[in-house]
Design goal:
Length: about 500
């Protein structure tokens, strides 16, 4: 619509101009070389316009003839470039599909058509790699480094070639060079960070992590977690040599991830050594509410090393009440009760867990309880059952079980690879704990005397009336008994 209006306006202006000239007649006189020519203004204008038109056409024809070779050359160059880029794209597809013959043919066509295109060198290098010529591929990538426009591309190619050949050191060096040229490269930043982590250079790794976070190569939650791991690793490393630095690092890690067990444990240990029991207790309790863990329990018990067994039991009750259903809460409270010689409480705490999900640690604690009470027969029975019981959670990374947490995997060098979980194992042939083990056996009477009046130990969770009724049905005078003649009695492990 706008173009139509513009056209009408131009036509209207020309018509208006023609009318204006027609209304003002006149004579134009030309005197040149003794010749005088007179004509009207309208004819002179029409003649002038015609001459200008012819001149323009002549100039265009002349310039067209003169520029024809250049235009023809540009046409052929554009055609050659189109053919080269088509060959380049087809060559990349051939490399990706593993067609070596087509890849070589298209690489040659692309090199003839567009020799200055950086991607042609990439196609040739990938073709050489596809053919198994690693030296040729590296040579082509190395040639790209000399060109500022393709330097990063060449470094990436050498990095990939080094990774393929298993040369980790060269790959890391090339990634470091690329990171200097372009800090925003994800592959280079990640490789440089992994190298620092694998070498245990926690401070440099933290610096690189902050840089990667600034360049938005990693999201904020993941960066917080990784930084907490790095700070905890460094705090654990300097825990004994530099307590002040360890405290600073551990508290920083705990602030980033309050429920991260290794950070909370090392912070509690360092604070306990510096007699800051209140803060150490608070850190452990915050982490315990989310993730009860033996490392936290161990750090919690060491906060007040000189306290009595009863005081320790009282503190363990407070911690266990925060997560009473957790297995680690039960283990913590049971072990503290055994240390305080509160055997009945230990049995009461352990029994529900043993009935629900008996594990090796639960059976071993029961063995410790029986040993503390002097019943070595039941101690041996619990130890034998521990052999076949399911395993408790441990620190595992890439199939490797570790006694304590480590920041990196010993297999792959991956950061934060260790997980707290139970290792896979083959299930036993039968139940670990059967109902008979919960029966209570009365204490044996001395030889030559009447049956004992009652059991030596109370049932923790048994039927007292049934026990009394059973004792009432015993003969009043069973007569002298000896160990050789008395028939064996089935004995429960919780009696």
């Amino acid at each position: 619509m706008i173009r139509v209006l513009a056209y009408l306006l131009v036509v209207f202006a020309l018509a208006l101009g023609a009318v204006w000239i027609a209304d003002r007649p006149g004579v134009v006189t030309i005197d040149w070389l003794g010749t005088e020519v007179q004509t009207s203004v309208v004819f002179a204008l029409v003649t002038l316009i015609a001459v200008l038109g012819v001149a323009v056409v002549a100039v265009l024809l002349f310039s067209g003839v003169i520029s024809a070779p250049g235009r023809l050359g540009r046409f052929f160059r554009r055609r050659r470039h189109d053919h080269g880029y088509k060959a380049l794209a087809a060559g990349m597809v051939a490399v990706a599909s593993g067609d070596l013959k087509l890849a070589r043919r298209y690489a040659e066509d692309a090199r003839r058509a567009i020799p200055q295109e950086p991607a042609v060198g990439l196609l040739e290098a990938e073709t050489s790699a596809l053919a198994g010529d690693q030296d040729g591929a590296r040579a082509r990538y190395a040639a790209m480094i000399d060109n500022p426009d393709t330097r990063v591309l060449g470094l990436h190619g050498l990095y990939v070639a080094a990774r393929r050949s298993g040369d980790v050191e060269t790959a890391r060096r090339r990634a470091g060079e690329a990171a200097v040229l372009a800090p925003g490269l994800g592959w280079a930043a990640e490789t440089e960070f992994e190298a620092c982590v694998a070498a245990g250079q926690w401070e440099d790794a933290t610096r690189l992590l902050d840089r990667n976070r600034h360049n938005r190569l990693i999201d904020k939650p993941a960066a917080r977690r990784m930084k907490a791991v790095l700070l905890a690793a460094r705090a654990q490393e300097v825990e004994t040599g530099d307590p002040d630095l360890a405290r600073e690092l551990a508290l920083a890690a705990n602030k980033l991830e309050p429920t991260f067990v290794p950070a909370a444990a090392v912070a509690a240990r360092v604070l306990a050594r510096q007699n800051d029991a209140r803060k150490a207790t608070r850190i452990v309790e915050i982490a315990w509410r989310e993730t009860p863990h033996p490392d936290l329990a161990d750090a919690y018990l060491k906060i007040r090393p000189g306290e009595s067994a009863q005081d320790r039991l009282k503190r363990c009750r407070t911690l266990a009440e925060m997560r009473p259903e957790a297995a680690d809460s039960i283990f913590l409270l049971a072990e503290a009760a055994i240390s305080a010689r509160s055997f009945n409480e230990a049995r009461a705490v352990l029994r529900p867990l043993l009935e629900r999900a008996p594990t090796q640690r639960a059976c071993l604690i029961m063995a410790t309880l029986e040993a503390a009470e002097g019943d070595h027969a039941r101690e041996r029975e619990w130890l034998s059952r521990a052999v076949h019981a399911p395993r408790d959670p441990v620190w595992i990374a890439d199939g490797v079980v570790a006694r304590s947490w480590a920041p990196v995997s010993p297999v792959t060098g991956r950061l934060d690879a260790f997980e707290w979980k139970a290792p896979e194992m083959v299930a036993g042939d039968g139940p670990v704990i059967d109902a008979a083990l919960f029966e209570k056996k009365p204490a044996a009477a001395p030889a030559g005397t009447d049956e004992a009046e009652g059991p030596a130990l109370e049932l923790v969770a048994g039927d007292a009336e049934a026990t009394t009724e059973k004792a009432a049905h015993q003969p009043d005078d069973p007569g002298p008994t000896t160990e050789a003649t008395e028939p064996p009695r089935k004995r429960g492990l919780f009696g």
